Amino acid sequence: MNKNTHLGHQAKKRFGQNFLHNDAVISRIVDAIHPQSGENLIEIGPGLGALTEPVVERAGDLSVVELDRDLAERLRHHPFLAKHLTIHEIDALKFDFSQLAKADQPMRIFGNLPYNISTPLIFHLLTFKDLVKDMHFMLQKEVVDRMAAQPNTKAYGRLSIMTQYQCQVMSVMEIGPEHFKPAPKVDSAIVRLIPHTEIKNPVNSLETLNHVCVTAFNQRRKTIRNSFKEMISAEEIESLGLSPTLRPENLTIDNFIAIANFVDHKKTQ
User: For residue 140, which phi and psi values (nearest 5 degrees)?
Assistant: First the structure.
């Protein structure tokens, strides 16, 4: 059976569809995921089954979340896959992934995520992180770079802080546009996210941390004295051991946590 057959399916722009068609690359991705029989595996956006087939071959059954009605229908009637899949025909951004949690088997989530919704989808999935063992996603390389970025770099920002606070982030491999149909205009990369089982320096409120990050990086060239002036004074910044003339990208994740906790503490006074 030719695994790359598109069966006449046209990639739909509104779903951000780009289909993988290189068997060697697909094998390397599946090796990185390392699916095992009996695991609670969940694929987001299986598309034409490029990853679904080899994962099922190695691990057996799989849950899939697919918004495109045509593709979901195709999977339901697939000669090899149909009997191995539990198909959830729904928008992953609106799906309650806790429905798929099993007490003894944490979720292992993977997929070639539509680039147009990748960041909000990552944030949605992180709300279920306590039920997740790991996640492997194909994303725009630029998004993976931002997730893994360290302070004092251009790529460092809200996505870096919010992801790294909750997970270990690893860029696993890069994939050129020539391995997709249609070829995207950007490079892609696989990221591995492993939720922290314990957070050594906890923030009081993730919502406040997110708000602090949004405020800081909306105008990243401003000093933190200026970007945080509605929330925290220059003197208060200094009381946290930070110089008010720093820019947001100079602050570590621990610095952002300290600011968020300070802001929260002020609210309760």
Answer: -60, 135
185: three-class secondary structure by DSSP? coil
Q: Mark whether 243 and 119 lie in a shared domain.
A: no
DSSP helix/strand/coil, 18: coil
Biggest CA–CA distance in the chain, Å, is 68
Do 100 and 218 lie in one domain? The reply is no
Query: Domain for residue 135, yes or no?
Result: yes
**What total of structural domains would you count in the chain?**
2
Tell me whether residue 3 is in a domain. no
Q: Is 111 left (phi over 0), alpha (psi -120 to 50) or beta?
A: left
Length reported for the chain? 269
Whether residue 256 sits in one domain with residue 153: no
The string of pLDDT tens digits covering residues 224-269 is: 999 999 999 999 999 999 999 999 999 999 999 999 999 999 888 7
137 and 173: one domain?
Answer: yes
Tens of pLDDT, residues 2-11: 343 444 445 4
Domain that holds residue 263: 206-267
Q: How far is CA 97 from CA 38, 83, 145, in A?
A: 18, 21, 26
Strands 19-20 and 180-181, by their bridges, are antiparallel
Checking 176-182 for CB contacts under 8 A at 24+ apart, the result is 179/20, 179/21, 179/22, 179/25, 180/18, 180/19, 180/20, 180/21, 181/6, 181/11, 181/18, 181/19, 181/21, 182/11, 182/18
Are the beta carbons of 91 and 67 closer than 8 angstroms?
yes
Based on the domain organization, do 159 and 245 belong to the same domain? no
